[in-house]
Amino acid sequence: MPNQNNNTKGQKGFSLLEVLIGLAILAIAMISGLKALTQTTQTQTVINQQYLAMLSANDALNRIYLQKTWPDIAVQKTNCSQHNLPLVCIRSIYNTPNPLFRRVEIEVYAAHQDDPTVPQGQRLAKLTTAVFNFLNSTL
Predict the structure, then answer these.
(1) How far, in Å, CA of 54 to CA of 75, rounded?
(2) Which of 34, 51, 63, 126 is the most exposed place for a label (fewest CB within 10 A)?
(3) Taking phi first (over 0 means left), then psi (-120 to 50 degrees means alpha), and beta for anything else, what does residue 83 get?
(4) What is the pLDDT of residues 5-42, one digit of tens each?
(5) In this structure, which CATH number among 2.160.10.10, 3.40.50.700, 3.40.50.720, 3.30.1300.30 belongs to the domain 16-132?
(6) pLDDT tens-digit profile of 111-137?
């Protein structure tokens, strides 16, 4: 009859130490996966904000083209929110060496919660172009 006190040869299952090591490895892997998922979500949020900011900048530029007036040299801040994202557009118009053109810069920032015309944080989008003065041209 085999000796029942000697379980080392016929041991089945895992020891407590082996289970704890396995759980530690699993926990590290799950924390790494959660960190990657969080980073992906944050990146997607920033990309979405930049996309909506570029739509606002395009909209502000199209307004200049559709007005068909020669824009005055000035800096103007306007609320240009998209969906539920509060945005502020800063439109700057400058002279160029050629008097028939003006340089237009449109920068888009997240808007301050209290005042929708106060920029906050880093710039989300920027468009720069030249506008032709077709009203005073001889073409």
Answers:
(1) 19
(2) 34
(3) left
(4) 555 566 678 888 999 999 999 999 999 999 999 999 99
(5) 3.30.1300.30
(6) 988 887 788 889 999 999 999 887 776
